[in-house]
What we know:
The protein is mainly α and 169 residues long. The protein is built from 6 helices and 2 strands; from the N terminus they run ααααββαα. Helix 2 (47-56) packs across helix 3 (62-82).
Amino acid sequence: MSEKTVAAPPAPFWSLAPYRPCALLPLRLIVGYGFLAHGIAKLQRGPELFIATLDGLGVPLAPLMGWLTIVVEVLGGLAVLLGAFTLLVSVPLAIILLVSIFAVHLPFGFSSIKLQSVTEAGPKFGQPGYEMSLLYLAGLVSLVLSGPGPWSIDRRREQRRQTSQSVVQ
């Protein structure tokens, strides 16, 4: 006895289902751009300022760690932005975030925005907490677990690998 398959009814015209493969694109773009922007800002202000900050925090080998952080943020941010080597670059980026949480932001609590007063010059804010670092970590974890999406270098690499494997078989 053969079973007859019934096609599912078409999705209503307002359905967002066709766009689901692109759901992580905004996340990938903002996480990648965020890391890239932070790395470039450290370069623009002068790496020696960031290195002095690390030294003041007691980070060992501050010059090496400062440059390593800048390079990882710039190249890793660019890679995430393009969806390239997402798993590989997420590890050092996550390490940078964890170090910033425990070495800098933890004493200031969760919230990244702490309005202290409003003056004629504008609002004055307190020290940021670890909220933004956690958001970036969550973004990296989401991209690693779900993949960077259809418009990414990683997806193209996977398609090429599948094509070359099917040709060999």
